[in-house]
Design a protein that fits this description.
With 301 residues, the protein is of the alpha+beta class. It has 2 domains: 216 residues, Creatine Amidinohydrolase (Alpha-Beta Complex); 67 residues, Winged helix-like DNA-binding domain superfamily/Winged helix DNA-binding domain (Arc Repressor Mutant, subunit A). It contains 6 helices and 14 strands. The strands form 3 sheets. Strands 6, 7, 8, 9, 13 and 14 form a 6-stranded antiparallel β-sheet that branches. Strands 1, 2, 4 and 5 form a 4-stranded antiparallel β-sheet that branches. It is globular. The mean pLDDT is 96.
Length: 301
């Protein structure tokens, strides 16, 4: 990997670690989730970086893709299992990391399952390892803790301005013999649940992404398309980000028009199908002989 590219990946990871520390300190009973999102996203921008995606704050049976809505009223309470997923981008090079907290508890067995499983994964991941080997490791480890992997969620590659690239490393066993290559960047996220282990798309939709230019009727739709391409760099963006330039009353109408025109794509929230509680842990690793984990306090294993 080019040295300058490596520096940008590492810088993104440093910012993500700072954000993780701040966010962990904010996950408490009585805190508004919108305050957490706005704080973390502001830190990213102050560090001369950009969010690779809106801060995800997914709670209990919601596994992913929940970011606070416009004026979101949700307040954390004791007993909430909160997943914070942070994406930082430096010149398009991404760090992606996530952690879980059970509000009001120091330890939780479901969260422990994801953390310990990711530790095992990071000790084994190397160039030459197959998707089959690694997916089996993940599933077996989670089951050893008495829980189920979320089978239709996966770790994924990262590329410049691409949040989800190849390879995909599922949380459940697959017989894919593709081998990992040196220089690949992997965001490995472990999802475990006390439910059946499958997520489904649900509502509301709070995250969108630019797809292509299309002729649209509304002025607000044209504004969103320009923002999606330029300010957001074609990466996922939050509905609430649009309130700086568009009236909240017009945002939904404009987004609906853009979705109908196939100009933007929706990211529905992902909910565990049996309403099981879901925990998540994620780190970004650069595959080398000695892998670099950019989002952990210690880079080398």
């Amino acid at each position: 990997m080019d040295r300058e590219v490596l520096k940008k990946y590492v810088k993104a990871g440093e910012i993500a670690k700072e954000c993780k520390k701040v966010a962990k300190g904010m996950v408490k009973d009585g805190v508004k989730i919108i305050d957490i999102a706005e704080k973390i996203e502001s830190i990213i921008k102050k560090r001369k970086a950009l969010p690779a995606f809106p801060l995800n704050i997914s709670i209990n049976e919601i596994a992913a893709h929940y970011t606070p809505d416009i004026n979101d009223p949700y307040v954390l309470k004791n007993g909430d299992l909160v997943k914070i997923d942070i994406g930082v981008m430096v010149d398009g090079y991404i760090a992606d990391t996530a952690f879980s907290v059970m509000v009001g508890e120091k330890r939780n067995p479901l969260i422990d399952a994801t953390e310990k499983t990711l530790e095992k994964f990071l000790k084994e991941v190397r160039p030459g390892k197959t998707i089959a080997e690694l997916s089996e490791l993940v599933e077996n480890s989670i089951k050893e803790f008495g829980f189920n992997p979320v089978r239709n969620l996966a770790g994924h590659g990262l590329e410049r301005y691409v949040q989800h690239a190849e390879p995909s490393i599922p949380n459940g066993k697959v017989n894919i013999q593709t081998k990992l290559k040196e220089g690949q960047v992997i965001a490995m996220e472990i999802f475990a649940t006390n439910g059946m282990g499958w997520v489904k798309e649900s509502y509301p939709v709070l995250i969108y992404k630019y797809l292509q230019d299309k002729p649209v009727r509304m002025r607000e739709s044209r504004i969103i398309l320009e923002l999606a391409k330029d300010e957001f760099r074609g990466m996922p963006f939050a509905k609430r980000w649009l309130t700086k330039v568009i009236s909240p009353l017009r945002i939904t109408l404009a987004l609906n028009e853009l979705v109908a025109k196939n100009a933007i794509v929706e990211y529905p929230i992902l909910k565990e199908k049996s309403n099981g509680i879901v925990a998540q842990t994620e780190e970004t690793v650069i595959l080398m002989e000695k892998p670099i984990i950019t989002t952990q306090l210690s880079y080398e294993l």
